[in-house]
Write a structure and sequence with these properties.
Mean pLDDT: 93
Radius of gyration: 15 Å
Largest sheet: 7 strands, mixed
Number of strands: 7
Helix content: 10-25%
Low-confidence stretches: none
Order of helices and strands: EHEEEHEHEE
């Protein structure tokens, strides 16, 4: 298993397969993908999971976190997200956040992300903004 930075185009391929299989690849692109750092988890050179990290001074957002369906539940996503959260911390981030599907909020709680009161709905999916704020005493 290996985690490495990947090109946005590699992230787009997996995003489309997992998140938007019936849409064109243009639907998976984010307007700020050029400034994001894209990470991929590989098993035997096969891209299994992706996530993109957007650093904004002391704050970061991770987006488009996706793992191949047949590979979910094997710990790959956990391993990748831990890596990305560590990278954010190395970059001096005091707050990291994401738009979490409400059905996945318990997964993110395992990484000490907490629910905020900010929620929204996109299409048929309900989201909650979850965040982890570094304690000022740390």
């Amino acid at each position: 298993m290996e985690i490495k930075e990947i090109q946005k185009e590699e992230a787009w391929k997996l995003r489309q397969i997992i998140m938007y299989p019936t849409k064109k690849q243009s639907a998976v692109k984010l307007t700020d993908d050029d400034v994001g750092v894209h990470y991929g988890l590989f098993v035997k050179e096969k891209l299994i999971s992706v996530v993109s990290l957007f650093l904004m001074e002391e704050e970061a957002q991770f987006r488009k976190f996706a793992t191949l369906g047949e590979e979910q539940g094997k710990g790959y996503g956990t391993f990748l997200l831990r890596h990305v959260l560590n990278e954010a911390e190395k970059n001096g981030v005091k707050k990291v956040w994401c738009n979490a599907r409400k059905t996945k909020k318990n997964f993110y709680k395992r990484f000490d992300l907490v629910e905020t009161d900010k929620t929204f709905r996109r299409g048929e999916i309900d989201y909650v903004i979850m965040e982890k704020v570094k304690d000022k005493t740390e």
